[in-house]
């Protein structure tokens, strides 16, 4: 039931007033405005006014409420998807993107000006060496690689290198390398080689290599690699400079105050029970640090820096929705859309796709909607090796049901080593089949098939489908709309909907 209220609610005086109540739940003007402004560009002019959009929005919220009533919002998969979406969004709020982008730009310029520009495609002869490799095994690996290298120097052709990769390498696929993607030891070698050049044997933390550069690729634009460079830089150096810059700003905002006594005791002894620092009025102690340090193996200085950084960012994370309404809207809307889509899948789409009786009944009731603008030909096109065979096939099929035509052709005329008939059966609109156009719709003459030069047709012109399955795709879509309208009507009838018209007038105008 929809109730349009002209009176002012008490909350109208608030900065973000209640615009409507749906089933007893308040909807603030900000939520409605977010959805309206997002969808407005795609609305038809007649539906673009807030008053018109309100109907559509109410239907959406009723479906979300139905999903919540069904417990879909408590499902683990749903919660994980929403949290994953939020995690991707908050990265931009927890880092100083200007600082991060400047660092990426410096890195890009350094790559472009040096020999590490672009990418290299390489193939290598690689032997994995574990960290605890024995001296004897290491000497054997070095001797083997030296022997391979000497052989390749005497046989510098590509076939010899490829053969050694196939026979001796633990990694047999060629691959591309960009800066900050592989260990420094590997990059130092491969970026120093020209296309076609081979390295001497060298070590990386993974093992021992002989590399050949197959191709050098040009440097892509900064915009196309900016995000990747920022991620690689953070991975290589263990921290994002943009995040560091953001933490310094947040420290001032939340009144970060280190406790020198506690910090000195931790640095000198490796442990303390004292307060290490205060953030937003809360003390963080050596006990808090110890729990973090147990999962972060490093020196005490690095552990403390990382603990402070994580504490500041974690606190900011709890306040993001309060500080940034746009984030709150994005996450809420993402979850609502997931819920509405899931409940619609259960209530409408699955049923429409499998309810054969319902589809047939809907088709019979709305048969006139599926009449074609111009007749179509329902039948079979028979291409025979001779005129006599084509005529025989046509006469033979006349006595059989349409559903048996193709099997009859296969068993009667095409059972031997040499097929006698090539058949095309179906529903043909003008333009679908040249032979139907020629013989049925009296269009342009069709050229005969080389192997089956004699053509006959059997069937009839029809104005509309005889069976709902002939228009199934369109019918399923129409049936979905029909079921959705029925379902929405039931939801509207079971929930009280109130809209404050005075607040509605202020949408995008306050």
UniProtKB/TrEMBL annotation:
The keyword Isomerase applies. Keywords: Isomerase, Rotamase. Residues 117-215 form the PpiC domain. It holds the Pfam family Rotamase. It comes from the Bacteria. The keyword Kinase does not apply. This is PpiC domain-containing protein. It comes from Bacteroides clarus YIT 12056.
């Amino acid at each position: 039931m929809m109730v349009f209220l002209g009176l002012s609610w008490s909350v109208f005086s608030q900065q973000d007033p209640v615009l409507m109540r749906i089933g007893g739940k308040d909807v603030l003007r900000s939520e409605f405005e977010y959805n309206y402004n997002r969808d407005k560009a795609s609305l038809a002019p007649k539906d673009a006014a807030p008053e018109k959009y309100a109907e559509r929005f109410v239907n959406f919220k009723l479906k979300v409420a139905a999903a919540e009533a069904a417990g879909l919002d408590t499902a683990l998969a749903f919660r994980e998807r929403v949290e994953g979406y939020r995690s991707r969004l908050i990265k931009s709020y927890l880092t100083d993107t200007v600082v991060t982008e400047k660092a990426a730009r410096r890195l890009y310029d350094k790559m472009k000006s040096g020999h590490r520009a672009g990418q290299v495609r390489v193939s290598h002869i690689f032997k994995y060496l574990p960290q605890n490799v024995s001296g004897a095994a290491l000497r054997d690996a070095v001797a083997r690689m030296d022997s391979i290298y000497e052989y390749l120097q005497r046989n510098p052709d590509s076939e010899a290198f490829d053969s050694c990769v196939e026979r001796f390498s633990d990694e047999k696929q060629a691959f591309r390398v960009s800066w900050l993607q592989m260990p420094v030891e590997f990059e130092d070698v491969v970026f120093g080689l020209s296309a076609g050049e081979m390295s001497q044997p060298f070590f990386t933390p993974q093992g021992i290599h002989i590399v050949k550069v197959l191709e050098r690729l040009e440097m892509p634009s900064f915009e196309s690699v900016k995000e990747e460079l920022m991620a690689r830089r953070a991975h290589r150096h263990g921290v994002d400079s943009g995040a560091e810059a953001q933490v310094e700003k947040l420290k001032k905002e939340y009144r970060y105050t280190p406790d020198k006594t506690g910090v000195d005791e931790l640095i000198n002894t490796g442990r303390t029970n004292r307060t290490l620092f205060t953030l937003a009025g809360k003390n963080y102690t050596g006990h808090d640090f110890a729990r973090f340090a147990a999962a972060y193996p490093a020196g005490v200085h690095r552990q403390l820096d990382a603990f402070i950084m994580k504490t500041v960012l974690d606190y900011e994370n709890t306040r993001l929705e309060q500080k940034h309404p746009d984030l709150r809207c994005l996450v809420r809307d993402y979850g609502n859309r997931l819920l509405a889509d899931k409940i619609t899948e259960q209530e409408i789409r699955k049923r429409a796709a499998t309810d054969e009786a319902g589809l047939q009944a809907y088709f019979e009731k709305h048969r006139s909607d599926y009449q074609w603008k111009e007749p179509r030909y329902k039948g079979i096109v028979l291409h025979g090796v001779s005129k006599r065979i084509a005529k025989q096939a046509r006469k033979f099929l006349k006595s059989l049901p349409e559903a048996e035509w193709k099997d009859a052709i296969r068993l009667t005329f095409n059972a031997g080593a040499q097929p006698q008939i090539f058949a095309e059966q179906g529903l043909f609109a003008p333009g679908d089949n040249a032979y139907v156009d020629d013989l049925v719709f009296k269009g342009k003459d069709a050229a005969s098939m080389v192997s089956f030069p004699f053509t006959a047709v059997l069937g009839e012109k029809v104005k509309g489908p005889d069976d709902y399955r002939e228009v199934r795709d369109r019918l399923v879509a129409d049936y979905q709309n029909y079921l959705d309208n029925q379902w929405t009507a039931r939801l509207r009838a079971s929930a009280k909907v109130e809209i404050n018209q005075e607040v509605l007038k202020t949408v995008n105008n306050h």
